[in-house]
Specification:
elongated, 7-stranded antiparallel sheet, 5 helices, 434 Repressor (Amino-terminal Domain), about 25% strand, Umud Fragment, subunit A, alpha+beta, two-stranded antiparallel sheet
Length: about 210
């Protein structure tokens, strides 16, 4: 997502409408501080939040996301990525064939494989870095590197953790630990239980 261009356009449209930052925040249900950071290009957002802002400005979403005259789009280069449920993550689902079938999408300005999907954070295991409601883009084809945030599966449970490589076993396979940032949650180790890595988190949207 081209955050700076989106933020600049929101500010321009707000001023044209004669609204203060506080007024737009109240009308759109968006926190004033987050709205300010969005206008300044230092904070991304989700498609539902943009729709609320556009409505508050008496604009259609398409109008908000385009420059005056519809000459060039504000989100040039952005991708519309389907937002999956955690149950769907890692299932034999072809994301590239889901256009029109998903109820919600998120916009990311990322270079990623066609199988990339989005997930909404549902617990506090990775706080304060990632919090409930944040939306992450996950690429199943991205190579796993030490320190990466990965989506993993143990049995039927799926979760987000930080990947930490510990070494290799006797067969030369990597032994790794999946570490939460919140110490109230427990780490998991590949030498103690069977862990499947579903994909690597490559970007995040902080909802307003």
């Amino acid at each position: 997502m081209n955050v700076k261009r989106i933020g600049s356009t929101i500010k321009k449209r707000r001023l044209e409408a004669g609204l203060s930052l506080s007024e737009l925040a109240r009308m759109s249900g968006v926190d004033k501080g987050n709205l300010s950071r969005l206008e300044n290009g230092t904070l991304g957002t989700s498609l539902p939040a943009l729709e609320r802002i556009a409505k508050a400005l008496n604009l259609g979403l398409a109008e908000l996301l385009n420059d005056v005259g519809n000459v060039s789009t504000v989100i040039s280069g952005a991708r519309k990525i389907p937002l999956l449920s955690w149950k769907q993550a890692g299932e034999p689902l072809h994301v590239r064939d889901l256009d029109g079938a998903m109820p919600e999408y998120a916009l990311f300005n990322v270079a990623a494989s066609p199988e990339t999907f989005a997930l909404r954070i549902e617990d506090e295991s990775m706080s304060p870095r990632l919090n409930v409601g944040d939306i992450i883009a996950v690429d199943p084809k991205r190579p796993i590197r030490p320190g990466a945030f990965v989506i993993a599966q143990i049995g039927d449970a799926k979760f987000l953790r930080k990947y930490r490589e510990l070494g290799h076993d006797k067969k030369g396979r990597p032994v790794f630990e999946l570490v939460p940032l919140n110490t109230l949650f427990a780490p998991r180790r590949s030498d103690l239980e069977k862990i499947k890595i579903i994909g690597v988190a490559i970007n995040v949207l902080q909802p307003l």
